[in-house]
């Protein structure tokens, strides 16, 4: 015996001694079988003993205990002497009495089994024995447990197949299943499945049969970008549920890049899900218990919808659809008077397309009210707002007002404009042309006094009078509108070069230093003016000078009116008119110091023609383009230096002065029966109008 063995024996003897002194001891028994007997057996057992045996058999076995001899003092409920059997905390049996007396508590041929692989047997005797009792003899054996026939918490040990062997059992699963690492549950492999078709079905494993336990399934539906997956739960839905808690056992979850759906459990079919995603992950987990039938999902795809567009204020979307999917387009148009703005730039049109990822390829623009901005300035006009002052947006209205008192709106010109949807100010006819403010013509400042004989004019009395100087020679002219001067062609002595021409207005003193200088830009001499003609050197003696700038109209500078085609402007003989100029006041004198005027009447054309035909036979004829004016008695006439100047008539109808003639020629000045000859303006209205309009 080795030292270890010696120590073990000593130790056991020590324990036995201690137990005997106290009347109790305990014995451990291991192995597949054994025998236990009461102290002193087969002799009577002593009083006051307590002995216990702890039997342990290998795992996977139970202890089977049976008695072959039994003689223990009987008592009510075995309160004196007894044998008690314990197993796994339970107390399956208490015995006392004698086999021959056949009481309830005697084990007889009863067999006691342990619950687990251990059993404790306790024998106790009290202080006395009425009779001689010889105790007991019992045997124990390890007996195999058939787990396959047993239930564990009401459930079989194995999910599918159970195989018992001595000392244990093992489980196997039906084909297609795998044994979970707990070695009992049959589960399935259901992870990593990817479905790429545009439609299909997914079910819980074994559907419609009960789904396996401890599943950890995941499925992915992955279709082309641009499609949106729709999930529909069909037939039946049965996933283990809990009335209070949200899917604590088994759970179905659906996840997309747009969010999560679920968890789903219970027996109610979940609603149809339009995922809005081309990728869907479905996970399904089950716990270790339950028998539910699972679920079935049918999936399909629709093209990915783009967010429903919202029309900007004052804009419309077309086409308007309930849903816009991949490749669908929409356009935005703005209400009339609104323009499309993207940031600070204006768009003429806007169309956007739904991309495959369900987003629009462009940001929608805004519709902003059209702004015509500040209206352009019209010459000699001011602007007045009809609608809100300073507001220049769509439908705003303005009115141009010609500067008073010298300008008036040209006939046919519109004063009122509104901001059109085009972003321009337009008149009632939709025209963009600015209104024209014309100088008021033929209105002298103060009354044009009617006096007989040459008279000095007042300032403003002949505001249209122009003093023309060409190469040191003086002549006259008349202002038409505010950019043209009408004169006689011969005054310009064929000068087309404007640098030789000096023009002064607004003066009555010829040499005054205060005047309005107007600058000539271009000369237009009538094309039929033939100064070399022997027959009639003064036929078509008419010219226009275009000014460089508009003349500012004032009290002393105003235009004469140009007659229209109405016959009333074709002045008859005896009509009184006024001629004005800085020319000689007498045949012999020099040019006048002050502007002079004289009232002369139109002379019968034939009478005048006869005079000059006699005077210059075959030469210097008075043509139909001329009119003669003077008086029977003579003395009142235009003279050298007045040429080109105006001979004006007062029109009773319009109360304005009109130009009727241009001082042209005559035999001397103021001689009786020799009349002043004038270019007949009435014959040149079209020429004047055309020249002006084509040289604007
Ligand atoms: C001239 O030499 C002139 N009495 C103008 C008018 C008349 C005569 C001559 C008419 O400019």
Strand % is 35-45%
- How many β-strands, per DSSP? 53
Uncertain ranges: 1-19
Radius of gyration: 67 Å
Structural class: mainly beta
Number of helices: 3
Which sequence of strands runs across the widest sheet?
45-44-41-42-43-47-46
User: Sheet bearing the most strands, described?
Assistant: 7 strands, antiparallel
Instruction: Give the averaged pLDDT, no decimals.
Output: 91
Shape: rod-shaped
Instruction: Give the distance, in angstroms, between the N- and C-terminal Cα atoms.
Output: 145 Å
Task: Tell me about this structure.
The protein is mainly beta and 696 residues long. Residues 1-19 have low confidence and may be disordered. The chain is built from three helices and 53 strands. The chain starts with a helix and ends with a helix. The site of 4-(aminomethyl)benzoic acid has 11 residues, from strand 52.
Kindly list the characteristics that best describe this protein.
single chain, 696 residues, mainly beta, 53 strands, binds 4-(aminomethyl)benzoic acid
Give a quick summary of the entry.
With 696 residues, the protein is mostly beta strands.
Draw up the topology in text:
Layout: H1 3-22, E1 24-30, E2 33-37, E3 50-56, E4 61-72, E5 82-87, E6 90-95, E7 97-98, E8 111-113, E9 118-124, E10 135-144, E11 151-152, E12 155-156, E13 161-165, E14 168-172, E15 178-179, E16 186-187, E17 193-195, E18 200-203, E19 216-222, E20 227-233, E21 251-256, E22 259-264, E23 273-274, E24 279-285, E25 296-303, E26 305-306, E27 315-318, E28 324-325, E29 329-334, E30 338-342, E31 345-347, E32 350-353, E33 366-369, E34 381-385, E35 397-402, E36 407-409, E37 416-419, E38 425-427, E39 437-439, E40 455-456, E41 465-470, E42 473-480, E43 484-487, E44 501-505, E45 516-518, E46 520-525, E47 543-547, E48 576-581, E49 596-603, H2 605-615, E50 626-630, E51 646-651, E52 656-666, E53 676-680, H3 685-694
Parallel strand pairs: 1-3, 17-19
Antiparallel strand pairs: 2-10, 3-9, 4-7, 4-8, 4-10, 5-6, 5-9, 11-12, 13-14, 15-16, 18-25, 19-24, 20-23, 20-25, 21-22, 21-24, 26-28, 27-29, 29-32, 30-31, 30-33, 34-35, 35-37, 36-39, 37-38, 40-49, 41-42, 41-44, 42-43, 43-47, 44-45, 46-47, 48-49, 48-51, 49-50, 50-53, 51-52, 52-53
Bound molecules: 4-(aminomethyl)benzoic acid.
The site of 4-(aminomethyl)benzoic acid has 11 residues, from β52.
């Amino acid at each position: 015996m080795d030292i270890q063995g010696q120590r073990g024996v000593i130790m056991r003897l020590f324990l036995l001694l201690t137990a005997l002194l106290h009347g109790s001891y305990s014995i451990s028994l291991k192995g597949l079988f054994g025998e236990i007997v009461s102290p002193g057996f087969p002799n009577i057992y002593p009083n006051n003993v307590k002995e216990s045996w702890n039997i342990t058999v290998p795992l996977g076995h139970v202890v089977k205990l049976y008695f072959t001899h039994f003689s223990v003092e009987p008592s009510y409920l075995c309160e004196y002497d007894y044998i008690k059997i314990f197993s796994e905390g339970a107390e399956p049996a208490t015995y006392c009495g004698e086999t021959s007396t056949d009481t309830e508590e005697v084990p007889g041929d009863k067999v006691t089994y342990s619950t687990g692989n251990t059993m404790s047997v306790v024998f106790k005797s009290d202080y006395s024995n009425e009779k001689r009792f010889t105790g007991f003899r019992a045997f124990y054996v390890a007996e195999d447990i058939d787990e396959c026939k047993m239930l564990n918490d009401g459930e079989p040990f194995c999910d599918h197949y159970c195989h018992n062997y001595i000392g244990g059992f093992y489980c196997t699963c039906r084909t297609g299943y795998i044994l979970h690492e707990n070695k009992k549950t049959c589960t399935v492999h259901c992870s990593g499945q990817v479905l790429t078709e545009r439609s299909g079905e997914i079910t819980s494993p074994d559907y419609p049969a009960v789904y396996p336990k401890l599943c950890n399934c995941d499925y992915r539906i992955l279709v082309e970008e641009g499609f949106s997956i729709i999930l529909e739960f069909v037939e039946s839905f049965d996933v283990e549920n809990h009335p209070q808690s949200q899917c604590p056992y088994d759970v179905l979850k659906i996840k997309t890049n747009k969010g999560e759906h679920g968890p789903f459990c219970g027996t109610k079919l979940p609603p149809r899900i339009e995922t809005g995603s081309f990728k869907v992950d479905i996970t399904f987990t089950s716990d270790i218990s339950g028998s539910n039938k699972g679920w079935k999902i049918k999936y399909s795809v629709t093209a990915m919808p783009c967010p429903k567009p919202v029309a900007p204020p004052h804009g419309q979307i077309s086409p308007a659809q309930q849903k816009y999917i991949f490749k669908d387009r929409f356009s935005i148009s703005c209400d009339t008077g609104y323009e499309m703005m993207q940031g600070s730039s204006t768009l003429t049109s806007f169309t956007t397309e739904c991309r495959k990822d369900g987003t629009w390829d462009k940001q929608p623009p805004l519709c902003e009210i059209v702004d015509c901005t500040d209206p352009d300035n019209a010459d000699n006009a001011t602007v007045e707002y009809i609608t809100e002052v300073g507001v220049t947006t769509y439908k705003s209205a303005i009115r141009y007002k010609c500067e008073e008192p010298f300008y008036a709106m040209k006939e046919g010109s519109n004063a009122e404009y509104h901001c059109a949807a085009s972003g321009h100010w337009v008149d009632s006819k939709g025209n963009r042309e600015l209104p024209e403010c014309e100088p008021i013509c033929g209105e002298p400042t103060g009354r044009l006094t009617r006096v007989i004989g040459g008279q000095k004019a007042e300032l403003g009395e002949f505001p249209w009078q122009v003093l023309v100087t060409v190469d040191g020679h003086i002549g006259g002219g008349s202002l038409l509108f505010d950019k043209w001067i009408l004169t006689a062609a011969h005054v310009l002595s064929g000068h087309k070069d404007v640098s030789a021409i000096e023009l002064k207005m607004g003066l009555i003193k010829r040499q005054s230093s205060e005047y309005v200088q107007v600058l000539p830009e271009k000369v237009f001499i009538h094309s039929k003016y033939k100064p070399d003609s022997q027959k009639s050197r003064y036929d078509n003696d008419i010219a226009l000078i275009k000014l460089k700038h508009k003349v500012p109209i004032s009290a002393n500078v105003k235009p004469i009116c140009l007659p229209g085609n109405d016959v009333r402007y074709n002045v008859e003989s005896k009509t009184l008119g006024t001629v004005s100029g800085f020319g000689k006041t007498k045949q012999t004198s020099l040019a006048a110091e002050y502007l002079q005027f004289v009232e002369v009447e139109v002379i019968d054309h034939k009478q005048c023609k006869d005079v000059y035909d006699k005077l210059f036979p075959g030469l210097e004829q008075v043509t139909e383009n001329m009119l003669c004016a003077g008086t029977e008695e003579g003395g009142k006439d235009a003279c050298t230096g007045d040429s080109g100047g105006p001979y004006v008539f007062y029109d009773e109808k319009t109360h304005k002065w009109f130009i009727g003639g241009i001082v042209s020629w005559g035999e001397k000045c103021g001689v009786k029966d020799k009349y002043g000859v004038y270019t007949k303006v009435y014959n040149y209205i079209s020429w004047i109008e055309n020249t002006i309009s084509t040289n604007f």
